[in-house]
From TrEMBL:
The keyword Oxidoreductase belongs to this UniProt entry's keyword annotation: yes
A cellular component annotation (GO) from this entry: glycine cleavage complex
The entry's keywords: Oxidoreductase, Pyridoxal phosphate
Gene that encodes it: gcvPB
Assigned EC number: 1.4.4.2
Protein's name in the database: glycine dehydrogenase (aminomethyl-transferring)
Organism of this sequence: Candidatus Termititenax persephonae
Domain Glycine dehydrogenase C-terminal, residue spans: 340-442
């Protein structure tokens, strides 16, 4: 196992010596000296270089993760965003007109792509967007004096954040059954009454299937007085092809950190702008970014929204992510976005066609950007689980796909190739999975004990959650290894 930087420490060793600074007494209480490692420059360089080689990123290889994919982000978009890195968000609007113009243009382009009247760029991620959108739905119903609408319907194949967002927004979440990979219309009808505030839906859903009955579903929800919420985590299958507003969705969030150039593996940063129909614009978070054409025109933050749900993020969201999305949108254009979606769908169906000869595809119909395979038969016959196969993939040099999600498919792996992978890479990945399937039949112990090529084999994942130990030092300042 790689040593910590503290383990390289030797008394008196230095990487660099700064010139002596004059001593100034600020009158502050004496503070205990920092316990920092004493290491040479070459120790530091080699240590962090070794660590970087052990990490797996989208620049290293293929990420087959489903639902929240780590797609490749063009470096030109990173460079563009860096040009604004030194801006102070507390500066006056007049000092940031070039930056505000880019944010305003980003919103207008999102409106054009997805069909909405306005977007707020404040939400910091997909789940934050869900929460914001649900607060808008709640504000809409309360403003109309319809406070009895306290339920949000959520399909059982939904993203796991949907029920949590409902609870945080003060709603009661009600699960709707699936039928043949889509919403069970009969079950939906049973739950539609005057207590329903809305329905949250992902289209295509987490099975990678397009909801064929979406227009009927929208009509049923609207007739019952509810609103339709679009979880846009899977918008990279439909952007430039189908607009959620045209499907009947009143509110939506879009994961810029997935669909528009900023992978957020490792927890951040992200951005989940929320778009709304014209009737819901008054409830958007404040401020909104507006343009005043007088005096040559200028961009400004507008706080004059008396029905607003309030601010949901400091300043105007994760601006760096928004700028990358701006660059991506400008470079791609409408034709580029449509092609990206088409390639994402093509790649997913190509993978599915190759793998379905060996792996069980619970929902074999034409998929969109992702699909789900099940290894339930492997588990019954050979004792090999989805987690085993995911870990064995690491020995072939691939990051594991999403496992055990959605919950309605037992022993499942969710695969999403995205639009950026070439056929050669997809073939190599398929070959690895097909070879693993052969290993399951001929040498299941090899798969069940994987991975064999990593620094850490099979850590006790439950214990790691239950008994985390993140301390480097004990109370005496001496390095303390994890010994429990």
């Amino acid at each position: 196992m790689e040593r910590l930087i503290f383990e390289y420490s030797r008394a008196g060793r230095r990487a660099h010596t700064l010139p002596d600074a004059p001593s100034v007494d600020f009158g502050w209480p004496e503070r205990q000296a920092l316990r920092l490692p004493e290491v040479s420059e070459i120790d530091v360089v080699r240590h962090y270089t070794r660590l970087s080689r052990q990490n797996y990123g989208v620049d290293n290889g293929f990420y087959p993760l489903g639902s929240c994919t780590m797609k490749y982000n063009p470096k030109v978009n990173e460079k563009f965003a860096e040009k604004f890195a030194g801006r102070n968000p507390q500066e006056a609007d007049s000092a940031n007109q070039d930056l505000l113009s880019k944010l305003y243009a980003t919103e207008r382009m999102l409106c054009q792509v997805f069909g909405y009247a306005r977007f707020t760029l404040q939400p910091a991620a997909g789940a934050h967007g869900e929460f914001t959108g649900l607060l808008i739905i709640r504000a809409y119903h309360r403003d109309r004096g319809d406070a009895r609408r306290t339920k949000i319907l959520v399909p059982d194949a939904a993203h796991g954040t949907n029920p949590a967002s409902c609870t945080l927004a003060g709603f009661q979440q009600v699960s709707i059954k699936s039928l043949q990979g889509g919403v069970d219309i009969a079950d939906l009808k049973k739950h539609l009454d005057d207590t329903v505030a809305g329905l949250m839906l992902t289209n295509p859903n987490t099975l990678g299937l397009f909801e064929k009955n979406i227009l009927q579903i929208a009509d049923l929800v609207h007739t019952a007085g509810g609103l339709l919420y679009y979880d846009g985590a899977n918008a990279n299958a439909t952007m430039g092809i189908a607009k959620p507003a045209a499907m009947g969705f009143d509110v939506c969030h879009i994961n810029l950190h997935k669909t528009f150039s900023t992978p957020h593996g490792g927890g951040g940063p992200g951005a989940g702008p929320v778009g709304v129909s014209a009737a819901l614009v008054p409830y958007l978070p404040c401020p909104v970014l507006d343009f005043a054409p007088e005096d040559g025109g200028h961009y400004y933050f507008n706080y004059a929204l008396p029905k607003s749900i309030g601010q949901v993020h400091s300043f105007y969201g994760n601006v760096g992510v928004l700028l990358k999305a701006y660059a991506y949108l400008r470079i791609q254009g409408s034709a580029g976005l449509k092609k990206a979606s088409a390639l994402a769908v093509l790649n997913a169906n190509y993978l599915k066609a190759r793998l379905q000869k060996v792996y069980d595809i619970p929902y074999p119909r034409y998929c969109q950007h992702e699909f789900v395979i099940s290894v339930q038969n492997f588990k019954k016959q050979y004792g090999v689980t989805a987690a085993d196969i995911a870990k064995r993939l690491m020995d072939y040099g691939y990051h594991p796909p999403t496992v055990y999600f959605p919950l309605i498919v037992p022993e499942c792996l969710m695969l999403e190739p995205t639009e950026t992978e070439a056929k050669e890479e997809l073939d190599a990945f398929c070959d690895a999975l097909l070879q693993i399937a052969e290993e399951v039949r001929t040498n299941p112990a090899l798969v069940k004990s994987a991975p064999h090529s990593t620094i850490i084999g099979r850590p006790d994942e439950v214990r790691a959650v239950k008994e985390p130990d993140l301390n480097y030092f004990n109370s005496l300042g001496v390095f303390s290894a994890y010994t429990r």
